[in-house]
Amino acid sequence: MRAALRALGETGITLGAVLLLFCAYLVWGTGSYTGEQQTLLRRQLVEARKNIVRTGRLGEVEVGGALAMLRIPRLGDLYRYAVVEGVGWEQLRMGPGHYPGSALPGKVGNFVISGHRTTYAAPFNRLDELRRGDYIVVDARDARYTYRVTGKRVVDPTDIDVIAPNPAHPDRRPTRALITLSTCHPEYSAAQRLVVTGELEGRRDHRPWRAGRKQEPSRADRKPEPPRADRPPDGPAAGTGVKGDHAADGHSTDGPAGGHSTDGPADGRPAHGPAGGHDTSG
User: Fold this and answer.
1) Torsion of CA 246, 158, 79, 90, to 10 degrees
2) Which of 75, 74, 71 is nearest to 83 (CA)?
3) Three-state SS across the chain?
4) Which of 147, 175, 220, 258 is the most exposed place for a label (fewest CB within 10 A)?
5) ∠ CA 160-144-218 to the nearest 5 degrees?
6) Tens digit of pLDDT for each residue in 115-172?
7) Which residues, in sequence order, are CB contacts of 248 under 8 Å at separation 6+?
8) End-to-end Cα spacing for the chain
9) Is residue 273, in this structure, part of any structural domain at all?
10) Residues 15-61 pLDDT 10s
11) How many structural domains comprise the chain?
């Protein structure tokens, strides 16, 4: 009897150690694969911009290809991720993924990006730290697009309206250029989705044949001006043109697109849910 109990105990310890090692691999080990893929995607972006210079054509990005660089100043100067086209299991292992069929960077509609929160470098692990008015910078192949955060909320995976071209009014045609970042919530779970929304504020061209156009520095790259003596300092969202407050839990009290209203007939939208039916937590 003692021998049997001893054998059972040793087996349990062994299984526990294996499980811990596997969990450690999921949390930290998968990041090495993503790092390698990110290097390749960044090289693709460099080559794509060179191709634009040579041909003057933007071209399409196939699933698995590099679409843009994502930068969020709130999360630090080192926060830079190449966005891959597609939100399948293989694409999300490479980095944040763009929903095929949603708007492209800077275009009218909803530019939707999904990303892992706990594995494969966890690009959206700190998405919950974003605040209304924060910058989201997207360096696409043709231009730099600067968005401002308009809201943050937690939704069910079945709430597909958040990725519609016009999230506030899914049955109406979009009239603004929006961005939606989506990841699993809470951490280590796919029970819900954390969604951050934003609206386009500015564009700065990369294309050399548009060099004659006056290029203003992106507001996200400008140094903040010191407050003047004849006016009070701006508030957290001053100058954004965004209305609404945060609820006590830190989520926006506005809808998925900041509560703005648009008119027009219905338009198409992606067929997947807020995380494309994929578990972005694991």
Assistant:
1) 180
2) 71
3) CHHHHHHHHHHHHHHHHHHHHHHHHHHHHHHHHHHHHHHHHHHHHHHHHHHHHHHCCCCCCCCCCEEEEEECHHHCCCCEEEEEECCCHHHHCCCCEECCCCCCCCCCEEEEEECCCCCCCCCCCCHHHCCCCCEEEEEECCEEEEEEEEEEEEECCCCHHHHCCCCCCCCCCCCCEEEEEEEEECCCCCCEEEEEEEEEEEEEECCHHHCCCCCCCCCCCCCCCCCCCCCCCCCCCCCCCCCCCECCCCCECCCCCCCCCCCCCCCCCCCCCCCCCCCCCC
4) 175
5) 110
6) 999 999 999 999 999 999 999 999 999 999 999 999 999 999 999 999 999 999 999 9
7) none
8) 40
9) no
10) 665 555 545 555 556 789 999 999 999 999 999 988 888 888 888 99
11) 1
Q: Residue 170 sits in a domain of what CATH number?
A: 2.40.260.10
Give the closest residue to 112 by CA, choosing from 121, 124, 120. 124
Dihedral class, residue 198 (left if φ above 0, else alpha if ψ from -120 to 50, else beta): beta
Q: What is the pTM of this model?
A: 0.69
Q: Which residues pair with 164 in a beta bridge?
A: none
Residue 5 maps to a domain: no
Q: What range does the domain containing 81 cover?
A: 11-17+20-210
Q: What's the CA gap between 156 and 159, in Å, rounded?
A: 5
Residue 121 lies in a domain: yes
Residue 94 lies in a domain: yes
Cα separation, 84 vs 66, in Å, equals 5
The one-letter amino acid code at 184 reads C
Structure tokens of 23?
A: 């969990």
Q: Tokens for 210? A: 């548009």
| Tokens 């001893």, residue located | 6
